[in-house]
Amino acid sequence: MSSSDQHYPYEPGSGQPYDPHVTQTWEGQTWDTQFQPTVQPQQAQQPVAYDTDTAYLPPQTAPEAPGPYTTGGHPLPPETPATYPPVYGAPMSSYETPAPAYETPASSYETPAYEAVSAPAAAAVAATPEAPAYSSPTTAGNARITDAQRARAEGRSPVIEPGMQPAALTAVLGVLLAVGASVGSYALLVPLLLLQAVTAAGWFRLNGMWPARQGIALAFLGGVTADVALLAAGRENAPAAILGTLGVWVLLTLVLQLRSHADPDERMYGLMATVASAALAILAAGHLGAEPDAVVVGGVAVAAAALARAVPLPGPVSLVVALLAAAGGGIAAGGFTGLGASGALLGLGAGVCALIGLRVASYDYPSRFVHMTAGVALPLTAAAPAVYLLGRALA
């Protein structure tokens, strides 16, 4: 082989000129299976850049490991072995990346116990004289809070009974009706007018409509009109006088509400409240159309039932006691009148109606004004139909 056919490798930067006729050769990696490259300790890798997604994690510290890979008592970063082309015939385990030589202890990620540190600090702050001391919230010490607000704050039922004071006023008014009925119709008219006025005012306030002077005046005027019609027509024509007055007043209330310039919703509320208040005031005139003995028994029975209901007893027990008191009052009042023992039935019927009136006056967090008006008048007003019907049947 001539010298021109010899192959000389060309190395960049060696200073030899480039000859295109000379075949160039390169020396690459061998495929010898006996050769396995190793990583020397001097081949230190570049520090690994932490990902931004894990930048919030606490730094990982490795335990001290003796050996030549420590510098100044601190371990070097873990090395990742280089990746080489596969060597045919070598086992697969030789190409797997070895596991890290150490693991970060889990205790380094645990959150420090702040409770143990904050407890003495809180005790020190509480011990300082400048720190204000707050007690548990209460609703019993505020004199300006209403019964409805107290019941709502304490999570109690929206039904609040009127209590002993309204019951005492109901008893007084019932006795006045009984005394007036025993004297005469005109003597009965005075407590009856008071009952109708309190009924009209209490019903409007019970429905949350206050002030409502025009509606109260209209309802009271309907009761007065029914009284006048009864006195003019007599007791035998009491149903016609009461129903006629009620029909006229419903029509009058409807006309007045149609002329109102309020919103449709407010107009409807006003119409319903005025009609109901006028109906109750006119219905109370049934005491004037009933038999005098029945009015006496009914007034005493309602008074006894209201007082018994105001006694602080469990719910079912209180109802039974109130009904028994009404029946007992009816028997006692029937002994002074011509009804006799049948007064127990009349007293029981009046007592049931009185309890219904008390229940209505106790609904939806009523205020003290409601208790002193509707809570006083509704038991007697609701008992008027029973007094009239049972009195006509038993007399």
3D architecture notes:
This protein is mainly alpha-helical. Helix content is 54%, strand content 1%. It is built from 13 helices and two strands; from the N terminus they run ββααααααααααααα. A two-stranded antiparallel sheet has the order 1-2. A hairpin with a 2-residue loop joins β1 and β2. α3 runs antiparallel to α9 and α11 packs antiparallel against α13. The radius of gyration is 50 Å and the shape is globular.
Biggest sheet, spatial arrangement of strands: 1-2
Distinct helical segment count: 13
Q: Please state the structural category.
A: mainly alpha
Indicate the multimeric state: single chain
Please provide the count of β strands: 2
Order of helices and strands: EEHHHHHHHHHHHHH
Q: Which stretches are poorly predicted, pLDDT < 50 over at least 5 residues?
A: 1-8, 92-97, 104-118, 129-142
Query: Which percent band covers the strand fraction?
Result: under 5%
- Sheet with the most strands? 2 strands, antiparallel
Query: Which whole number gives the mean pLDDT?
Result: 76
Q: Give the fraction of residues assigned to helices.
A: 40-55%
* Shape, principal axes of CA atoms: globular
Gyration radius, rounded: 50 Å
